[in-house]
Amino acid sequence: MIAEAGLAALWFAAALALLQLVLAAIGVRRSAADRAEPAGAHLQSVDPSIGSTRTRVEDFLAAVRPVAVVQGALVIFAMLLLIAVFVRSDMSVRLVAEDSSAAKPLIYKIAGAWGNHEGSMLLWVTILGLAGAAVALFERTLDRRTLVATLGAQAAIALGFYAFLLFSSNPFARLSPAPADGQGLNPLLQDPGLAFHPPTLYIGYVGISVAFSFAVGAMLTRDVGPAFARAMRPWVLGAWIFLTIGITAGSYWAYYELGWGGWWFWDPVENASLMPWLAATALLHSVTVLATRDGLRAWTIMLAVVAFSMSMVGTFLVRSGILTSVHAFAIDPKRGAFILALLVIYIGGALALFGARVGTIRQGNTFEPVSREGALVVNNLLLSVILGIVLIGTLYPIIAAAFGTQLSVGHPFFDSTAGPIALVLVALMAVGPLLRWRRDRVGAGLRRVAIPAAVSLAALVVLLVFAPGIRALPLIGLALGLGVAVASIAPLWGRDLRRTPLFTYGMVVAHLGIAVSLAGMASESAFSRETLVATRIGEAQRVGPYQVTLIGIRPVVGVNWSAIEGVLSVRRGEAAPFLLRPQSRFFSTPPQETNESAIRTALDGQLYTVLGNRDDAGRWQLRLWWKPFVTLIWAGGALVAIGGALSLLGRVRRERRATRREEA
Amino acid sequence: MKRLMLWLPLAGFALLFAVVASGLFRPSDNLVHSQMVGKQLPKFSLPPMVAGKPGLGSAMFADGKPKLLNVFASWCIPCMAESPQLMALKRQGVAIDAIAVRDTPENIAAFLKRFGDPYERIGDDRQSAVQLALGSSGVPETYVIDGEGRIVEQHIGDIRAEDVPEIVAAVRKAGR
User: Fold this and answer.
1) Which residue in chain B is spatially nearest to A398 when comparing CA positions?
2) Is the pLDDT of residue A590 over 80?
3) What integer pLDDT is reported at residue B30 of this predicted model?
4) Is residue A337 part of a domain?
5) Within an 8 Å CB–CB cutoff, is residue B13 touching chain A?
6) B1, B3, B6: best to mutate for the A interface, most A CBs within 10 A
7) Which domain holds residue A37?
8) Most-buried pick from A35, A46, A76, A372 (CB within 10 A)?
9) Which phi and psi (to 5°) does residue B149 adopt?
10) Exposure of B161 by Cβ count < 10 A (0-12 exposed, 13-18 middle, 19+ buried)?
């Protein structure tokens, strides 16, 4: 019954989305007609019983809002019911039988609900519904007519993805006869990381749909200006924070769970999450120009469309299975074709609307090249170029296949193309916040970055002296990271710290996070030490500052796995030794072997150990890495997210105060 | 001019659409094709795998007669599945030689006893050296070799019943 109730909730939600779309469409048209006939509108406003333009839009808004909220509630209800069938291990539901097993710990039963195609698409739609409901409930500053159009656009997107779920990816389909037990969840996914990573990433991924709907709404009503930008900004920020957390957490999860010692693989699925982040980061900066200086109108609209388009393209790439990836998902061309059709409708539609409408939006303010705006434009261009590189690199295997060549594009391409541009971008990040709005003098700007530049230069010299032979990219990365870390705090110099707005702190922390992360990446890439040894019990191995001795091998049993555990005694200098226990785990449903790395985090880096197989001579393979300052990569990511959160808090507070003042 | 620029994003998306649609509707080819197709067999000489059957060397392929070269192993399940097709090819007069990969004489003898023996010669390639030289990425794989010892075609994976006529035709063609 639970599964049927879930399916019914989905159908109801789809029907409400349709209703929401129709109501919004009529609302926008009617009010447009009213605006087009000012004389009529004038007459109407004389007689309050007929209602003015303003009240008419208010009427439609009053009707659309609850529909959006109930639609969101229904789809959340459906998601909860799916989790319920997973928790109950109801094997008569096909999805549970295929991806779960009764013996799994509770947390993985819950996470299993989105560890598969249908469930993750339901999660996708759930967050879309949630975002729509949140806009309906909390958006107070946006122009009423644009808000109605925005909710209509959000409903239009939801409708397509409901159709996808209901017609080709029903998560609640039954299986008859029901098997005694399920086939189990991929062991790599049985990790606490999975419980939180996809929902977080999806909130960002799909949350950015709000920006898309705002842009479509604004193009329909031709109302693009600072007020629109201020209304859109918190939504973009919110989604962007979650995207940042999702990507950072996903990177760390891959790092410790896959046992390969790497933190970013330029895998198509990683790129699919990076592309919306790049676009959203660009959008975040351009929306600030629009809000503060009323510039970059068309460009901001474009970016809002592109950001969510990248989410949808990413979903398509991941879900259609047209790219080979370490993320093995079900390959089904029919489903791919369905999502592709949705892409054509939404992205094609929005871009056509852009072509037709954006020309009629008045041009905003202009500015001098050397100014805060100028720096933000360059930031946007560089981010767009990186986005383009990642997109082309990700799709290139498909293009090459069309010409009969098989190839894969990996880190050599991305490192050598996106890497240098990213370094230029980070360098610019040091300068941008120190420039004035509208117009600045080159000399004055240079003076303000003199200290950070000196720090970078000093770091460069020190590195060249003490670490000769370091490769160019990590060398520049380290030097730049230090300089930019100093520069990112510079906007606070000479300011009254108590009166500095919270969003300025947000910017400082986020930029500092980027610098910290860059330093971590560069240090990991330049100074990592790796050894792969075959060792007997009792033999000591050296890696970096550590001495690692295998002192024993013992069997371990978990809830649904058994493992061989290596007990390593690790010493660093004169300090007391500690134990690390890397495991080689065997899962029975489905049968698979995974390596559980054991990691020791010190202040200056991580020791990463992986236990391999036993060879014929009775020696054990041991893989050891010493990765100096590698943790900075994720610490930086966390700082970026915290900076975003501070910004969001600051912006929302200020808007609240402004609204209250208006009302008073 | 400016108006046209505004349609550029849509044009870009159309291009993106064309790329992914082409990828979607032409299923990707995940097989690893050998770079050796069209070239002379690499030089090799393998000892016999089982008693009473000669080993295999590259020189034996230059006798003017086209042959099949089957790369197989007793531990490989698709190899068991394709054995009836190999027997059918043998009955149609196709000469088949084989390379047994990472295997032992006892296991191969048991395999031949159970699934039939379509082979004229079997070379013992315990370290997969010749397999790698052939550009073969797995078992089973079957190569069509012409009378001069040139690799004409590569069949990746087990030979299904529907593949048999095609392979017979390829061997005939290589003989001309």
Assistant:
1) B23
2) no
3) 57
4) no
5) yes
6) B6
7) 1-186
8) A372
9) 85, 30
10) exposed
